[in-house]
Amino acid sequence: MTSQPTDQPTEQATEQPTELARPAEPFPAPPAHPPLFPPAPPLPAPEPVPAVKKDRRVLRAALRWTAAVVVFAAVGAGVAYGVTEQRRSDLPGLATESDGRWEYPEIVRPPLPKDAPAAFAEDNLREEHFADLRELVLPAPDGAEEDKALAGKDGWLPTATYLKAYDKDARGDLAQALKDGGLRHVAARGWTMPDGTRTSIYLLRFNTSAFAREYRDQVNTSLATVVGAPKFDEDFSLQGNADAVPDTHLFVYGEQKPYGRERVRYAYVEAGDVLALVVQSDDGHGSAVPFRQTLALQNQLLG
């Protein structure tokens, strides 16, 4: 028998991994790039600061001064607050003596009727006062005793009572001048202060301002003198100050020396259709301040 050849090898072959061939020389390293900025030089080491020896005495003195400043500031603030809170008259050495002015209540002009112009408005050619004349009379100051004789009936004073402010010889002529001049109303008020100073205010309202001016001129030309002042001088010092109230004019007079039982000051205020007479008398030793004050306030009410 002949044997048949077989295809199987005598030794079983095993698979081995294939190893990559290595180059004989390694790959060259990439060239190094130079730095963009040169490196900063190293900082020098800080020099050691010598320790300062504190003097305890200096430190204590500084603390004492700081505390003193704080204390003085607090005390100063307290004193300033106390001064501002006190009245001037309460502070020794700063007390202000009264200059003789009176204490008046709050003074307000009376309201006008609806659509009525003020006395000196551009469209009020007659310069009429449309407010109630009785409310245009200056009120009495604090502490005053009012003169009931000048209160009138419902606040309107009879013409005969007004004429008693003048000497008897002039009353007849003045009464006729008032009748011809179209006098409409008279309102008045009077009072006496605790020191005996007496004040009387009369407001006369005419048809127009022209009649009021004409009547005042007649009073001057007729030499009608106010009771208690048979001889008088004109006081120009007050007249200049009075013109500060627009559209009004003052004519101020004072009794000449030697005074009688009383010293008399009086003045006229021309204010449109209203003519005011302010009369004040004292014992001859009083200040002129109350008279000036009263006159100025009455002038402002009418202006």
CATH class of the domain at 133-302: Alpha Beta
Q: What level of helicity do the residues show?
A: 25-40%
Which overall shape is indicated by the principal axes computed on the Cα atoms?
globular
Q: State the CATH topology of the domain at 133-302.
A: Protein Transport Mog1p, Chain A
Task: Explain what you see.
The chain is of the alpha+beta class. Among the domains are: 59-89; 133-302, Protein Transport Mog1p, Chain A (3-Layer(aba) Sandwich). Helices cover 27% and strands 16% of the residues. It has helices at 56-85, 159-163, 168-180, 209-221, 236-242, 289-302; strands at residues 145-146, 183-192, 198-206, 232-234, 249-255, 263-271, 274-282. The chain has a seven-stranded antiparallel β-sheet, with helices on both faces. Strand 6 (263-271) and strand 7 form a beta hairpin. It is globular and about 50 Å long. The relative contact order is 0.11. The model is unreliable at 1-38 and 67-96 (pLDDT under 50).
Fold blueprint:
Elements: H1 56-85, E1 145-146, H2 159-163, H3 168-180, E2 183-192, E3 198-206, H4 209-221, E4 232-234, H5 236-242, E5 249-255, E6 263-271, E7 274-282, H6 289-302
Antiparallel strand pairs: 1-2, 2-3, 3-7, 4-5, 5-6, 6-7
Task: Throw out a few tags for this protein.
single chain; 303 residues; alpha+beta; Protein Transport Mog1p, Chain A; seven-stranded antiparallel beta sheet; 27% helix; globular; disordered N terminus; transmembrane helix; transmembrane; membrane
